[in-house]
Design goal:
This protein has 118 residues and is an alpha+beta fold. It has five helices and four strands. Strands 2-1-3-4 form a four-stranded mixed sheet, with helices on both faces. The site of glutathione has 10 residues, from helix 5.
Amino acid sequence: MFIIRWLLGRIILLLNFIFTPKKRQRSAEEQQKVDAITQNFTLFEYKACPFCVKVRRAARRQGLNINTLDAKQPEHKQTLLNEGGKVQVPCLRIEEENDVRWMYESSAIIEYLNIRCK
Ligand SMILES: N[C@@H](CCC(=O)N[C@@H](CS)C(=O)NCC(=O)O)C(=O)O
């Protein structure tokens, strides 16, 4: 079972690499504005998780630079569990004006990013 999951993960990563989406281009000024928003975001993920790949691809299509943390690493996994509430990826940590939110569900994250970072 582990082998099959591992293999599927490699296939997903390979396909993602081959069919890397085009990154949206913005003017330097526009990109700066969007970067100022996304610098408060952290995406907790597993590299080969299909739902995480989906979010990373959507972020790339939108030209967003989002810091990622590998939730396989025990320290990040613990943070996700303690502060987010459960170990499920992808999870977007959103820090805004002394408020921290933990957003689960790939579709919800993509929708949020599309609205927040037009
Ligand atoms: N419906 C969720 C599914 C996310 C999901 O199933 N993530 C898996 C990894 S692919 C997970 O976090 N499993 C818990 C674990 O591995 O501990 C989404 O769209 O984000």
